[in-house]
Inverse folding.
């Protein structure tokens, strides 16, 4: 099976610090990483390949430096990387992003399972995975925590819902979005690192995709950001110090009414 | 590049780097002492434009026809909400959407409509009317008994094309996010995820959708100026539930759809409810969370005991989940769940930025930690510094007394 995993390069939030004076993000020196959820998608793709045979291609839409994310995926065991990058994609919202990735997938053609992380850690929308499925008119299983069964023509996955787990059977091709629980991503092997270094990354531009220009980038995006602001800082609260027997009743007194209100 | 949507004018830029600091997306860099915008990263949010003291950054005003734009926006009327149900029970997020939707509909002078998909649910429409709906669209079919991505999306697409709503709101739940992403692509609507604020622009009548990004470190206000409907998912527990008014009147419309629309390629094999009987934390008004400070899995019992007395859900930090102390479904934070309870009590959680991302919009935050420098205290409404093994059981006892349990 040809498994295609869609990944995104994001700023490493573990690195992000807040300037305590201005309450804004300090972004200087922040490194880019593969979106944490995509790491699980990459790992699961490699495991499926190990089981079924075939190959795994990682695809990303982003700036030229997103090539690093593809090389990292290859170092883990992905076979090939495709970078979809063009100035024409500037200002893409989730509609245009999922369209662009769907057009790239059409160009790939022989995809079986399309794997995505459940959402990206910078935008947190969770819209691009199902968006790709919609553009390609494919079935989807979102929030997958386990793949129970897979063959050339179908997949059975466990979807994590708020109140339990739903087991879903879908025909292949289909789109899966995965949650953290699904696996433990492996570290790159030495062999993988060498392969990543040597790998030829395929570059596709807008013209390569047979995309309708009007559906790309800013023009193809129905939404528009009109304002960005920092949320008001939470006021430093009241700290209770001292003997537990003294401070605990003080806190209970403060919280009692709120607890009763919340219970009603 | 005159076609670029945003440009730095080289003759005006002095290389002061102010714009670089202002960019939430890290899209501006210095090249040969001048600012250059990396268009593949830029989201055209405009944060840099007013920051530049030399007016060197210009955004192209774009009046060119946009693909899929709606020619006559006034043809789209009414505010719709998706009435999420599980096992035939209307979910509380639906009441929150009705509360918020009512306000928007009143401001626009439009009707508030609920869309209810299910099987044998026609008796639930009165509930939706009493909570504020002027009209309820019902599609009743065995295939819609429980949520399935394909038929649910296809039915909504069908209804939207038929009735042309101006706004469509849905809960930012697992179901909601999976569903409306498919719908928005097909009807070519703008879709904004996980909104925590909604308002109507008094001038343009556009829906102003405000949402957190970067784990809540920045907020963005987003509009859909030229496409309809304006779709948004709304974060659970942020909006107030609509109250019941038994005297309210509204109409119910039973909608028929073609058999084709109800087909699903993906099929549910079975459903396994969460083994642990504790509450779904996304729904909880109070959450008691435990972290690494608990030191061992058996110590989670002190967190559970406090939760029980308070009628609270049990949450956890990533560290506790990774250590295998508690299932992943309890994890709060960037790689877990985003929660917004009335009261959040963090026991032995240091408060790394990823954890804060998942809970910092809670109304009241209580932090219990022995380290006075733990970042959790910076967001805490009340902090207790000390040994959680003494403080938490004591808290349980005192609450038991105070609540007369």
């Amino acid at each position: 099976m040809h498994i295609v995993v869609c990944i995104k390069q994001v700023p490493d939030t573990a690195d992000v610090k807040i300037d305590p004076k201005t309450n804004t993000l300090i972004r200087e020196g922040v490194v880019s990483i593969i979106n944490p959820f995509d790491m699980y998608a990459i790992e699961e793709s490699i495991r499926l390949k190990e089981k079924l045979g075939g190959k795994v291609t990682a695809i990303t839409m982003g700036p030229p430096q997103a090539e690093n994310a593809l090389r990292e995926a290859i170092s883990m065991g992905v076979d090939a990387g495709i970078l979809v990058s063009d100035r024409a994609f500037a200002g893409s919202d989730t509609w245009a992003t999922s369209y662009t990735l769907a057009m790239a997938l059409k160009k790939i053609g022989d995809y079986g399972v399309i794997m995505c992380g459940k959402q990206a850690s910078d935008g947190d929308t969770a819209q691009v995975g199902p968006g790709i499925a919609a553009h390609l008119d494919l079935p989807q299983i979102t929030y997958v925590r386990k793949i129970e069964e897979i063959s050339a023509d179908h997949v059975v996955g466990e979807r994590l819902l708020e109140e339990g787990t739903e087991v879903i059977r879908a025909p292949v091709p289909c789109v899966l979005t995965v949650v953290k629980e699904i696996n433990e991503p492996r570290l790159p092997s030495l062999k993988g690192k060498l392969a990543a270094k040597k790998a030829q990354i395929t570059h596709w531009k807008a013209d390569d995709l047979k995309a309708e220009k009007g559906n790309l980038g800013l023009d193809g995006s129905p939404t528009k950001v009109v304002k960005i602001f920092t949320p008001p800082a939470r006021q430093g609260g009241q700290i209770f110090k001292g003997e537990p027997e003294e401070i605990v009743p003080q806190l209970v007194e403060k919280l009692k009414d709120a607890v009763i209100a919340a219970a009603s | 590049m005159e076609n670029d949507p945003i440009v730095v004018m080289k003759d005006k830029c002095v290389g002061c780097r102010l714009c670089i600091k202002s960019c939430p997306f890290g899209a501006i860099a210095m090249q040969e002492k001048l600012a250059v915008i990396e268009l593949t990263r830029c989201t055209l949010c405009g944060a840099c434009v007013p920051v530049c003291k030399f007016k060197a950054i210009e955004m192209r005003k774009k009046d060119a026809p946009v693909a899929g734009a709606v020619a006559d926006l006034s043809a789209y009327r009414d505010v719709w909400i998706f009435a999420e149900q599980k096992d035939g029970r209307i979910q509380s997020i639906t009441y929150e959407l009705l509360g918020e939707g009512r306000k928007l509909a009143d401001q626009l002078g439009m009707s508030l409509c609920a869309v209810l998909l299910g099987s044998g649910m026609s008796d639930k429409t009165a509930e939706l009317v009493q909570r504020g709906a002027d009209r309820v669209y019902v599609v009743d079919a065995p295939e819609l008994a429980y949520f399935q991505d394909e038929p649910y999306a296809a039915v909504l697409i069908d209804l939207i094309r038929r009735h042309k709503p101006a706004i469509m709101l849905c809960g930012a739940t697992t179901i909601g996010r999976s569903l409306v992403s498919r719908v928005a692509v097909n009807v070519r609507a703008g879709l904004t995820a996980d909104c925590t604020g909604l308002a109507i622009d008094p001038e343009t009548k556009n829906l102003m959708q405000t949402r957190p990004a970067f784990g809540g470190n920045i907020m963005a206000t987003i509009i859909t100026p030229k496409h309809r409907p304006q779709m948004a998912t709304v974060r659970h527990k942020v909006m107030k539930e609509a109250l019941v008014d038994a005297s309210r009147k509204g109409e119910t419309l039973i909608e028929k759809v073609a058999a084709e629309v109800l087909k699903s390629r993906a099929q549910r094999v079975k459903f396994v409810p969460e083994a642990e009987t504790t509450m779904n934390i996304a729904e909880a008004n109070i959450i008691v969370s435990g972290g690494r400070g608990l030191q061992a899995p058996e110590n989670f019992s002190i967190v559970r005991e406090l939760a029980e007395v308070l009628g609270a859900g049990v949450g956890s930090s990533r560290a506790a989940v990774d250590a295998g102390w508690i299932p992943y479904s309890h994890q709060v934070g960037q790689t877990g769940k985003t929660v917004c309870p009335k009261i959040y009590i963090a026991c032995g959680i240091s408060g790394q930025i990823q954890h804060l991302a998942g809970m910092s919009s809670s109304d009241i935050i209580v932090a219990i930690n022995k380290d006075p420098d733990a970042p959790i205290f910076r967001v805490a409404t009340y902090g207790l510094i000390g040994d959680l093994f003494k403080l938490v059981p004591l808290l349980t006892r005192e609450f038991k007394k105070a609540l007369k349990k």
In short: Chain B touches chain A through 120 residues (CB under 8 Å). Chain B has three domains: 6-59, 73-261, 286-402.
